[in-house]
Amino acid sequence: MEETPEPPQQRKSRAGRNLPAAIGVGAGLGGLVVLSLFVWDKWLFLGLVIVAVLVGVWEMVRAVSVRKARPPLVPLLLGAPLMVCLAWFGGAQRLPLGLLATLLLVFLWRFADGVQHYQRDVTAAALIAVYVPFLGSFAALLAYPADDGSVRVLVTILAVVLSDTGGYATGVFLGRHPMAPSVSPAKSWEGFAGSIVWTGAGSAIALPLLLDGAVWWHGAIFGVAVSIASVLGDLGESLIKRDLGVKDMSNLLPGHGGLMDRLDSVLLALPTAYAVLAFLVPPR
Asked: Which long-range contacts (CB under 8 A, 24 or more apart) does 1-5 make?
């Protein structure tokens, strides 16, 4: 009797991911975001941000439900695009109003299910409202209405990619000392240092080339700040997943898990990039 040949093994990364699928999906998403920044006067980008925060909210509610919390989904799905649109059309001064409206709607909506576990559910919903749509809305603040908003988003994405790639490469070859073994065993202090160096150096070159009024030290400060925020964002989501006992937020993206597993490094980087650029290179 002939033995059935085993199917070829798919190449996986150290994190156990399907590496070709991860690279393909990541490149496709990145290309779509970059394209959206420079067509239709960035309206496609606004649509992508809204879709991203809606999917992120759904994934977070789904993941939190594993631990029996029941944050109300509907008011979060209504509040997410509200926050993004207020940021887009009204600027930073209007964004907190969207968060406040979302939280009030959550509090009122949850009344219908009674008193039991009310505090637990609204606390989880408040965390999701701040973590996903509020932080995600800073993408809209970066992009619009500044004339160079597309470039501001582009250099932020570039910095996050440099941080992730530089940290991964440095950690693979030089990583010896775990950074937070109970949260993310693959993270090392050497990789963290590599993230900062790669991002600081890359942004010192990119910002003066792409952003009017920026000089090399603007880029270095920007890169270091975004890299630190990116790594902390990654660790923060890993901590949430550890607490919930889930590996991925969903299985939506082949090779990546959920969309939130890709946005973890971006969400904290967005307000950081917005604040640093607003101070060093104010929008025109």
From this structure: none
pLDDT at 29: 80
* Pairwise CA distance, residues 204 & 225, whole Å: 12
pLDDT at 15: 47
Terminal CA-to-CA distance of the chain, rounded, Å?
A: 75
Mean predicted lDDT score pLDDT of the chain? 88
Which of 269, 66, 31, 48 has its CA nearest to residue 163?
269
Global pTM exceeds 0.70: yes
Find out whether 140 and 133 touch, Cβ atoms under 8 Å.
no
- Write the CA distances from 52 to 156, 222, 243, 261, integer angstroms: 17, 24, 23, 12
Residues 6 or more apart whose Cβ sits within 8 Å of residue 4: none
Query: HSE (CB half, 13 Å, CA atoms) of 241?
Result: 20
Q: How far apart are CA 266 and CA 262, in angstroms?
A: 8
Cβ proximity of 171 and 191 under 8 Å:
yes
CA 24 to chain centre: 18
Flag whether pLDDT at 8 surpasses 70: no
Residue 77 clears pLDDT 60, i.e. is over it: yes
Would you list the DSSP string of 54-75?
HHHHHHHHHHHGGGT----HHH
Q: What is the mean pLDDT of residues 38-65?
A: 93
Burial (CB < 10 A; 0-12, 13-18, 19+), residue 9, is exposed
Q: Please, are residues 214 and 280 in contact by the beta-carbon 8 Å criterion?
A: yes
pLDDT of residue 7: 47
Main-chain dihedrals φ then ψ at residue 35, nearest 5 degrees: -60, -40
Residue 21 has pLDDT above 90, yes or no: no
Q: Per DSSP, what are the bridge partners of residue 172? A: none
SS3 call for 184: strand
